[in-house]
Amino acid sequence: MDLTNILFYLAPMGSMLGLGFAYYFYKQMKKKSEGDASMKKIAMYVREGAIAYLRQQYKVVGIFFLVAAGLFSFLAYYLKVQNQFVPFAFLTGGFFSALAGYLGMRTATDASARTTHAAKHSLNSALQIAFRSGAVMGLTVVGLGLLDISLWFMLLNWFIDKQIFGLVIPQVERYHFITTTMLSFSVGASLQALFARVGGGIYTKGADVGADLVGKVEAGIPEDDPRNPAVIADNVGDNVGDVAGMGADLYESYCGSILATAALGVAAGFGLKGIILPMVIAGLGVVASIIGIFAVHTKEKATQKELLKALNKGITLSAVLIFAFTFLLTYLILPENMGVIGSILTGLVVGIIIGKSTEYYTSSEFKPVKDVAESSQTGPATVIIQGMAVGMISTVIPVVTIGVGIIASFAFAGGFSSIGKGLYGVGIAAVGMLSTLGITLSTDAYGPIADNAGGNAEMTKQKAFVRERTDALDALGNTTAATGKGFAIGSAALTAMALIAAYIEEVKAGLKMAGQTVLKVGDKVIEITSANIIDFMNVYNVHLMNPKVIVGIFIGAMLAFAFCAMTMRAVGRAAFAIVLEVRRQFKQIKGLLKGKGKADYASCVKISTLSAQKEMMFPSLMAVLTPVVIGIILGIPGVIGLLMGALGSGFVLAVFMANAGGAWDNAKKYIEQGHYGGKGKANHKAAVVGDTVGDPFKDTSGPSLNILIKLMSMVSVIFAGLIIKYGDIVGKVGEKIK
Amino acid sequence: MDLTNILFYLAPMGSMLGLGFAYYFYKQMKKKSEGDASMKKIAMYVREGAIAYLRQQYKVVGIFFLVAAGLFSFLAYYLKVQNQFVPFAFLTGGFFSALAGYLGMRTATDASARTTHAAKHSLNSALQIAFRSGAVMGLTVVGLGLLDISLWFMLLNWFIDKQIFGLVIPQVERYHFITTTMLSFSVGASLQALFARVGGGIYTKGADVGADLVGKVEAGIPEDDPRNPAVIADNVGDNVGDVAGMGADLYESYCGSILATAALGVAAGFGLKGIILPMVIAGLGVVASIIGIFAVHTKEKATQKELLKALNKGITLSAVLIFAFTFLLTYLILPENMGVIGSILTGLVVGIIIGKSTEYYTSSEFKPVKDVAESSQTGPATVIIQGMAVGMISTVIPVVTIGVGIIASFAFAGGFSSIGKGLYGVGIAAVGMLSTLGITLSTDAYGPIADNAGGNAEMTKQKAFVRERTDALDALGNTTAATGKGFAIGSAALTAMALIAAYIEEVKAGLKMAGQTVLKVGDKVIEITSANIIDFMNVYNVHLMNPKVIVGIFIGAMLAFAFCAMTMRAVGRAAFAIVLEVRRQFKQIKGLLKGKGKADYASCVKISTLSAQKEMMFPSLMAVLTPVVIGIILGIPGVIGLLMGALGSGFVLAVFMANAGGAWDNAKKYIEQGHYGGKGKANHKAAVVGDTVGDPFKDTSGPSLNILIKLMSMVSVIFAGLIIKYGDIVGKVGEKIK
After folding, report:
1. Which of B394, B417, B558, B643 has the most A C-beta neighbours within 10 Å, making it the best mutation to test the interface with A?
2. Cβ-based burial of B303 (10 A; exposed 0-12, middle 13-18, buried ≥19)
3. Interface predicted TM-score (ipTM) of this complex, two decimals
4. Greatest alpha-carbon span in chain B
5. Could you tell me the residue range of the domain that residue B610 belongs to?
6. Which strand (E) or helix (H) includes residue A287?
7. What pLDDT score does B279 carry?
8. CB B446 within 8 Å of CB B134
9. Which of B40, B251, B553, B724 has the fewest C-beta atoms under 10 angstroms from its C-beta?
10. Could you give the number of structural domains in chain B?
């Protein structure tokens, strides 16, 4: 056993450490008091609603997973276009992601009232509870993700060693087999993420918009008012959207980037070393995150800036640590290619720049949001136009950053001498960016906890100073949510890029499974064992004058828009269902509006849950089926074109929607702070229109696009064997014509 | 002289015929009376404003052209990375496009009052005047475009025959030289189109939104009210945006598709026949258009549907005729590849489907617009969300249609046996789609004439029946405008596609000019005379795993969004300038609002003109410079990636914006017809917000994207030689690292 084999154990160790600390933080939080009876009651409503939602969601998704696993078994055991481990790897990926979502949300809903209660004592203790409960989510995601990866790696290694299942694979092929199999585990995580993001996104904004339309606008009662029957559903929505949805999204990116990089490591000719490196970076990333989490604390009477500084201190510490760790790891594992250190650094820097750019375009401290607020003087139409323009122009910096990042990480890893090494560099940049996910996701999950704590304080009518403190924590949460979204999109783009590259490897695996030793298209022939990606691209004609590629790019670009259209309309319908129900309650429950009757919160929660489940199906199916349909019609070149088109257009559209939504949101808040006439005046009403439009932009459609661009690559990965055997109808017809 | 050489003269003959009939229609129109003094006065204001605008625009553009021609001369005569004809071909392309715009707009502004006056007598005579005046634009565009192409073709042929300028070119090379030179003539048309579309788009919506904001909203006076000082500017805007802008846009597509196809014909190995075929199709297309134009007439008391039928009859007749003509022409010229007939038919069908799809999503007769109107019940925010969703989902049919169209036209022309033939098929599909431009553009240019006739009737307080007739003509114009926009976008996409393919030929020409006989990149070498496009793509590594290509795609996708952001904000600023001026006049001119004072129309026209000129510069420069900058940094693969990314994302974005804007516009009109409470109620106000947002969507940013996707290809074409010699810094640095 050489050093690389020993170092591998850093991955499962990091994973266990993460899970251990998650448990520790959870136990610590549970020890605190949840406050008085009314606080407990509100918290219970939210918790029960959230868990009821997840239960319903997992029921639907469970059926979907079983059907999919059945289909994959058919592919593996009957058609033999996929290997026999895939159905199981797929299921574990989905299961662990679901488990992480459940644990994270359970913790978040346990923590909100405790945060409110702690705010009675001090700001710092409230911050500690909220943030460390967020850290439970962060550490659970990285812990379970890394655990699944480590276990499967050990398992597959062992199977091959023992020649179980007739696996007699020559050494040179085993790593290719292992890594391409493990990618299918990511498919499970991806599918889980799709439902969590889309369903959660529809839920949260359906409830929010519905509650606002009928509560604030029609009945004229404030936000978070207990008389509004949809208020609990709204609070539940924050959890299912921003905790479970965001968690599943990043779980997918995390695992996807590690596994894609591992597969690319084999293609780059790094062998075992290339596989192990991303895993151990992730393992030590967990350690760096935990240290960072402990570094977050604040003094009493901290200003907004000081609170943000407290969080940033933790994140920066983790980033510096992980950079030091990876330097050491690369030196030990891959000393012949120290350039990858540059790639990792690139990933870290790209993440920071995209986060900062998001902050600039969505924070009311800077010009763009102030411009949107100013445009409220000429009414809602100009608010919309201005916000759209801000969102669109805000795509420039992230795209240029990702572009420079791709070139730089490619070049650092030696891409100019070998494209395989270069693509490995892009993959490891994504791993680097996501290595500190343990702490960055904590700051994301912190947001809804603080938000719910504020809601709890509002509904239970806490004293002013308590609400001031929860408001301060909540405002901080809005900033972290915005930068978190930028980070999620940026990492999704790099991960998707790595996944598309890894798809080539999966195609090779599919060809081998079909018993081919050479790839022959037209009059071009190459050996399949060749690690030369360029040859593969050339034989398959994946160049930009191939009409299949071009049509794929067009369809991919369109798909992002169609997906947004569907999710936006889904929010509209879900909101309308809530509006009808709240109107019904206001009418039928006597004295409700006067604060005497008791609102039926559960029915709103139920309606939101059911409509989210119903509405998520169609867009999800479209995302899943399109790569298969395009593969059947246009073959491998069409699929790669589709993925690249969806990635390019989807990334830009996602940034646009997230930032436009963020800018509208904060422009409204800026006006509420007293600018341009303040709350309730015409300008404010114009800004509210922008905010309402922005809700599905930033919390449903935009974030769902992250999943779209990754999921389509993953679906293509798992169906690669099928497409090789049965796909490319156009090409086959063409051959006959010819 | 063989048959092909003789048939060529159909092109200049068609061109002369088109110009002849344009002159005839113009003279016929001028014979009619312009009505009474007040009608004449209004018409004069609009005419003077429009011509003042064009004069100012051509002054600015003229300087730009001279600078550009100087630069191209530098490239051609000093750096020798471009041939010596290019600066002149470039200038004539721009000049003829400008001339067509001037003549078309002159006619349109002459025709509006005459249409109003004719409406006093009969609906049919009003339709005849408006439509045939629109036909002046249509026939001038195709006539001048084809004239320029024919002249240059004859000229270059002659130069080479006589060996003037030391042009001793072997026969096999001459066609390559001629077609790649002629493409640069398209660059002139493209640049002209950019300024016409962007400047015109900013002008028209700046004036419209500004007039509405301060007139309708602040002062509470109706649209087209002579008390509003911006009313003339608004009417001028219709002409500069929809006549001059649309005309220049399609002039570019028309010439671009013919010239790109000619270049692809050489690459496909068709030689002279491949060059001549698109030209003669265009020539007979003019004849088919003229016959179609004569077929348009209507009975008195025609309903809206019957009017539309009258126009459609003419268009359908032209399409059937041109199909018969092309069958014959292909049989005579290219009998060995009759499949291109299928490609031409594909182009015609694609145009029809995209037009129909646009109608479905933007006409108030169908569900999408009704849904938008219905959403007005829950306020402006839901109107915006619903309209956005309609626009986004409306991209599906056009994209799938274009996709199927690309594959089909590729396959029909023999693409499966030779990629060169296939790309020729895509080019000739675009030519087919645009062959009846003479009549389709007539229906577009008809719109603003009818609109201005209505405005004239309103301002001069004509009797009710006159206004009813002009309203009927105007409503018809709105439908033709919507389908015309769909047609413009669809043809732009196919043309851009052909231009990108032709770019490869331009790169070959650039290599030859650099004295290279073989192309060598890395360890791959091919002969440059080779017609094999695939080899070229492979040697340059223009495949989807090349990071330069990927980054190009990302930047291209982003550019479309950034361009929209800039043009939208430009409209906002231009509108604000008008608001300030109108407010000033209301304040300073005594009795103006009571109908006693005299509004200073000219100052509003001047302000709109100046702000449009100022605002168009930055987005235009971005569009022009980006391909050059990307080429310098990332070389040929980066440029092709950029073009394809911009095409994919830009096409989808353009369809989205045009259709969302159209849906909002007609949802508002639908409510004004008495649905959901009718005019002036809360629902109507919500719909007005949508309409205002939609204005820059559908008339500025969306249409400008057509130009963006074509222009960037054209810019790349003209700088190909420069990029070959000085481009690809990343690659050069990479070589050193390696």
Report:
1. B558
2. exposed
3. 0.95
4. 81
5. 3-737
6. helix A271-294
7. 97
8. yes
9. B40
10. 1
